[in-house]
Amino acid sequence: MSDSNPLVKTLAFWGIPLAIGVLGLKMLAWWVTGSVALLSDGLESTVNVVAAFIAYFVIGYAQKPADDDHPYGHHKAEYISAVIEGVLIVVAAVLIMKEAIAALEAPAMLDAPALGLAINFAAGAINAVWATILIRVGKRHRSPALTADGQHIMSDVVTSVGVLVGLVLVVITGYAILDPIMAILVACNIIYQGFKVITHSVDGLMDKAVEPNEEAAIKKAIADHATGSLGAHYLRTRRAGAATFVGFDLVVPADMTVSKAHEICDKLEAAIKAVQPGARVTIHVEPEDEVAHGVDVKVEGVSI
């Protein structure tokens, strides 16, 4: 089954020229002013360009249908993209820190600050709109690569706001040293954001379970639609990119026909997919004389 999502792939594609355009604006702002803080902002945007290329190609690969070598699909490829982006974010922060520390020794006032700040503000505004779109669509369609890209760009927006505030203070106070100090603060924020992206992506690669509220909805769906069975236990969930996998054991009377047990499983699968769209559901049916269970369906991950 294919999980192709044209909207996700289209947004990933348009992220490439947009990232290049924003990078151009930020580097122009640095060239106009000579500000090391604006240079640091521009260096972070180089990561956006690289990340946009990676996200586009990885999202295309992740949407390939399952095959003989990958029977569960290619969804986890998106996490690899997100991890790479997180690493690139940290690398960019290190480069920024290096430039800023060097500038501390000989801070200089800005050239044409008004024009430079206006250009950088325009770049930040574009990023803010684009990041909001990527995050919303990424979360709606469960695309880790798109969501990570949007979150990184949003951190770039926060960075740009901080840089603008810092440079306005430089102009007002005349203290040129505020420029490299702001660049160092920007680098620290970028490192924090990079590690957040990496941590979230590693969780996906390690088959982390769904969120507690999602698990609660799955448990309720099982409890409400398991009529005819004797109980359910050993619930397992994991998230792999856009796909969610749900598995559990269902206990039925020993004399129940295969046809009747299959009918109950169909109802449960439909109920779970209603609260977790597109979920892959695997149900293992057990006869009651194998393991004793009560009549109340309560999924806690242990026998009831």
From TrEMBL:
GO terms under cellular component: plasma membrane
Keywords: Membrane, Transmembrane, Transmembrane helix, Transport
Residue ranges occupied by any Cation efflux protein transmembrane domain in the UniProt entry: 18-206
Ranges of residues in domain Cation efflux protein cytoplasmic: 212-288
GO molecular function, one term: zinc efflux antiporter activity
Transmembrane segment boundaries: 12-32, 38-59, 79-97, 117-137, 157-178
PANTHER family: MITOCHONDRIAL METAL TRANSPORTER 1-RELATED
Protein name: Cation transporter
